[in-house]
Write a structure and sequence with these properties.
mainly beta; Arrestin_domain-protein; Arrestin domain-containing protein 3-like; Arrestin_C-like; Ig_E-set
């Protein structure tokens, strides 16, 4: 069973006191989000990689293919951490690639009995170098900070699905469709153990007994303490068509999620 994390009650009537027999109506907003522990999951330690290619055609002439490869440094992150994207572009065409971009895209899908509806939001974006015709270039480290967002999986909610991808795009000069790759990843609430280093060995075979080991390994940096912050994008108005003019209470709701503020801590 999931645990009720928080709830907000809004009454429809502009009253503080109700008499016996009166009908009390209102809204109850419950948050049953469960955190995802990235710690200890090997799949979250592995990079998320992908590649794609296309050939540009101009009338009856076709040039060589353009190939795009990219990967993230890990497969699981927490809000407040950063995603590092690396890759390469091999441009065998006669057309210049003006730039490469990377952005975090959040896709939220709402399910009804027979239909579904999806919305897409760009959470952060960065721009990298391009590539001239007939050349190859490495994509420099593109860093994407992760804002305050909900975790990827809502285990106790089967009508809402949340997914995250890094969308890497090679922008091709002229009237050509750009080349894209998607790198899916998971948002959790507990960072990976390897993010801060594993436990140090109890014995070092190169240490001479009785002599201090001044060159020994130092302790890994401690992670920042987790805090709760309002979700990126602000709150939403929860007033609906059934509300009357007497509806009172907090009518804007913004859920809070776990966030790690690395501004005062050295992130590896």
């Amino acid at each position: 069973m999931g645990k009720l994390k928080s709830f907000v009650v809004t009454f429809d009537n502009n009253k503080d006191v109700y008499q016996a027999g009166e009908i009390v109506s209102g809204k109850l907003i419950a948050d049953v989000t469960e955190g995802i522990k990235a710690r200890g999951c090997n799949e979250y330690k592995m990079p998320s990689g992908n590649q794609n290619s296309k050939t540009l055609c101009c009338l009856c002439c076709a040039s060589g293919p353009i190939e795009l490869q990219a990967q993230t440094d890990r497969g699981g992150y927490c809000p407040g951490e950063r995603i590092v994207v690396k890759g390469s572009v091999e441009n065998n065409s006669n057309t210049r690639i003006t730039k490469t971009t990377a952005k975090i895209v959040q896709t939220v899908t709402f399910y009804a009995t027979r239909k579904s509806r999806s919305s897409h939001s760009t959470l952060s974006k960065t721009v990298g170098l391009g590539c001239r015709a007939r050349l190859s270039e490495n994509i420099a480290e593109l860093v994407l900070p992760i804002p305050v967002v909900p975790p990827s999986e809502l285990r106790y909610c089967n009508i809402i699905d949340i997914k995250y991808v890094v969308l890497v795009t090679a922008h091709i000069e002229g009237a050509h469709l750009n080349l894209k790759v998607e790198l899916p990843f998971t948002i959790g609430s507990v960072p990976l153990t390897t993010q801060y280093g594993g436990p140090q060995p109890a014995y070092n075979s190169t240490t001479i007994p009785g002599v201090p080991d001044y060159l020994g390994a130092t302790a890994p940096p401690l992670p920042p303490p987790p805090t709760y912050a309002e979700v990126t994008g602000g709150g939403v108005n929860i007033r609906d068509s059934n509300d009357s003019e007497y509806t009172m209470g907090q009518l804007t709701y913004a859920p809070k999620y776990m966030y790690y503020d690395w501004s005062q801590h050295p992130q590896p």
